[in-house]
Amino acid sequence: MEEKKKILIVEDAAYMRDMLSEMLEQEAGSYEVVGFAVNGKEAVEKYKELKPDIVTMDLVMEVMDGIQAIREIKKYDPSALVIAISALGTPEQKKAALNAGAEEYLWKPFTIKNLFEALEKLLRKREE
Amino acid sequence: MTKGLDYKVLILISTVLACTILAFFVGFIKDETIVYTHFFYIPILLAGVWYQKKTVYIALFLSFLYILVTLFSPQAELSVHVFERSAIFVAVAYVIGVVSEKRAKGEEKLKETKEYLDDVIKTSVDAIAVVDMEGIVRSWNKAAEDYMGYTAEEVIGTNNNFFFADPGEAEKIMRIVQRDGELKNYRTIVLNKAKKPVHVSMSAALLKDKNGVPIGTVRVSRDITKEVELEEKIEGERDNLNLILESMDDGVYIVSKDYEVEFMNKVLIDALGYHVGDSCYKAFHNREAPCPLCKNTEVMKGKTVRWEWYSRRNNKTYDLFETPLRNVNGTLSKLTIFRDISDRKRMEDELRDAEERYRVIFEHALTALCVIEHGEELSLANQEFETLSGYSREEIEGKKWIDFIADEDMDRVQNYCEERRKGEAPASCEFKFVSSNGELKHVNAWIEPIPGENRCIASLLDITELKRKEDELRETCEKLTELDNMKRDFLNVAYHEMRSPLAPIVGYASMLERCELPDKGRRYIYIIEQSARELEKMINRMLELARIDSRKIELILEDFSISGVVQEVVKDFEPEAKEKKQIISTIVPGVEIQADKQKVVAIFTNLISNAIKYTPEGGKIDIVVEDRGKDIRAYVADTGIGIPEEHLPKIFERFYMVDTSLTRKSGSLGLGLSIVKEYVNLHGGKVWATSEPGKGSKFFFIMPKRQ
């Protein structure tokens, strides 16, 4: 039995945080939400504190945006796994997120299927 | 005279002595006194001729001698006869004396006349010669000696034909004089002693004796060599003049004061025929009397006139130059030189008309116009310039061009003017114009050098008002741009915000799908998901267009196979097409292009999506791509409802919908085609559509293969 993957959810919208955790609950055997952050700054702090396996990172947030947060986290831990999630969905933003160090990218709106596909893809990439 | 007297006295004395001695001896021999006394008539006759009445004294002396002889003669007796004879002597002597004296008086008068004539002849400046009927020279005066070089001694007695250059002249002159009795101003040439020809004008008269028989001719000749030379010179000049006149292109003629044509040059003869000798008014103007405008009288007074004459008959205008011409014989003729100036006149008129036209245009032009002389002063201005400057025309003319230029623009305008003169600068230049009250006006100036002249024409358009409006417009435009940017930013945020609530809808719906639900519930979820996807698509498109408008889009270029892209898109639509029982066929060559793949996908996606949407069930959709070398041409054809022709040009416009009811049914905002157009344009291509309503539409685009 594989160890549960610890997930840090970074999202400024409460309903999105809720939805993400509820979705992840459906695969509670594989994933465990270890914490939430409502902005980039908090995300970095939480990452350092909780040392999650995966971060779902909303890109548009107050205080510190997702791109900046990804950079900080990657600087702190280059092996960190980040899925960027955004409602903007522009190629430029996707490019910026990937450049900052995000491994995957998820557009809002997404289905539960989309989320787990992205997570699996991320983990597969890591194993390789 | 004394000598003559002596010689006559001597003869008389000797004759008297001889008669006396003869008479004395005869008286000794015989008494024949009557005979010997006849000898005494010899001296009486001689004395009578020589001494006229004085003869009586001689006769008395002879009578005395006779008486003495008779007295002493031995044979003779002093008788009454002796006295008788003596008386007869005296009487005869008296008669002879009287007769002789009468004769002598007549001769003396004759002699005086002759001397007078001789003096006249001698002192005459004209040569006078007397030639007898045989042609022998009998008299030759001083003047003749002077210019002929021969002395009278050398000439008198010789034949006169010897003097003439043409020997036949002598006989001819004689013949004329004989025939007419005189000869007047006859010109001939004689040769002087040095054999040089001398021109003479000769007059001659016939000399007759008292019976009227011609005995010779008297000839008076004058040396006219100088006159003749002068005449020849004049003739020569006249010939030269004629030659010049002949060769002139202008018409030239000479008429006498009696209007008789004396000369016509070639041009005139060619035009009117030869009329020398005819009346000018008849020959040139077909009139019976001198023309009313004729300047002959004036010219004959020595005036030179120049005038223009318009001939109504042939509608031509002539420039005439008329001047008196002095002939050799002292009379005047009129020389006329004329030229047909109709063409010039017409051109002058046209030029005047054109000038007038341009003046009117200049004057009433709606732009301010002025002429700038080289020295910078203005020489001409129009009404509008008065209005612009606020000065009257008198004030403007003479003012400097630079007086009207605001200081801050001076260098720039001066440079512009200088370069315009060289033909280098751009056509117009804006500057601030200083008007009479110091008010500054914005003008757009155009300086144009006048070809071939050292000045320019400046045309100034008052753009103050225009400028003000332009500023207003710019301000408005800036405001609007700002507003537009604000609106776009707002929309970007708005679209983003609209997407956010979609996330939980789609997310929870997808989670609900995993739950155990009745069939009805599954159908509801499906509808929720489909609607959410439709909404997402719409928001995506609006977002995309907003990004295009804010120029936020850049092409991300890569090389890919066009057929790959088409197959990929078609594959996505297959379920939808299958559902509507539509057949999608593709003809795509295996060609690689360099483009933004995402956008090419979007182009085909939108076109195919539209085709499916507007084509009824069982329809057909063709996708064709053609390789045309430098570019590709593609089209998506459907068998749909088609688009009315009047809508075709507008279908690529944003939010344009052919049929709103249909749109509503199909759930579109009319943004797909406008995105297609923007993407194709971004690639440097072109889109268009053709359609037959009821049969179907064809959407084309062309795109370069490489960017």
Short structural summary:
Chain A has one domain (5-127): Response regulator (Rossmann fold, 3-Layer(aba) Sandwich), CATH 3.40.50.2300.
List the helices and strands and how they pair.
The complex is a heterodimer of chains A (128) and B (707).
Chain A: E1 5-10, H1 14-25, E2 31-37, H2 40-50, E3 54-58, H3 66-76, E4 81-86, H4 91-100, E5 104-107, H5 112-127
Parallel strand pairs in A: 1-2, 1-3, 3-4, 4-5
Helix pairs in contact in A: 2-3
Chain B: H1 2-29, H2 33-36, H3 41-51, H4 55-72, H5 80-123, E1 127-132, E2 137-140, H6 142-148, H7 152-155, H8 168-180, E3 182-191, E4 197-208, E5 214-223, H9 225-247, E6 251-256, E7 261-264, H10 266-272, H11 280-285, H12 296-300, E8 305-311, E9 316-326, E10 332-340, H13 342-364, E11 368-372, E12 378-381, H14 383-389, H15 393-396, H16 410-422, E13 428-434, E14 440-449, E15 456-462, H17 464-512, H18 519-549, E16 557-561, H19 562-579, E17 583-587, E18 592-596, H20 597-614, E19 620-627, E20 631-638, H21 660-666, H22 672-682, E21 686-692, E22 696-704
Parallel strand pairs in B: 17-19
Antiparallel strand pairs in B: 1-2, 1-5, 3-4, 4-5, 6-7, 6-10, 8-9, 9-10, 11-12, 11-15, 13-14, 14-15, 16-18, 19-20, 20-22, 21-22
Helix pairs in contact in B: 1-3, 1-4, 3-4, 3-5, 4-5, 17-18, 18-22, 19-20, 20-22
Could you explain the architecture of this structure?
The complex is a heterodimer of chains A (128) and B (707). Chain A is of the alpha/beta class and 128 residues long. Chain A has a single domain, classed as Rossmann fold (3-Layer(aba) Sandwich). Helices cover 47% and strands 22% of the residues of chain A. A five-stranded parallel beta sheet of chain A has the order 2-1-3-4-5, sandwiched between helices. In chain A, α2 packs parallel to α3. The two termini of chain A are 20 Å apart. The model of chain A has no long low-confidence stretch (mean pLDDT 89). With 707 residues, chain B is of the alpha+beta class. Chain B has six domains: 110 residues; 100 residues, PAS domain (Beta-Lactamase, 2-Layer Sandwich); 116 residues, 2-Layer Sandwich (Beta-Lactamase), CATH 3.30.450.20; 98 residues, Beta-Lactamase (2-Layer Sandwich); 90 residues, Orthogonal Bundle (Helix Hairpins), CATH 1.10.287.130; 151 residues, Histidine kinase-like ATPase, C-terminal domain (Heat Shock Protein 90). Chain B is built from 22 helices and 22 strands. A five-stranded antiparallel beta sheet of chain B has the order 2-1-5-4-3. A five-stranded antiparallel beta sheet of chain B has the order 7-6-10-9-8. At the A-B interface, α1 and α5 of A face α17 and α18 of B.
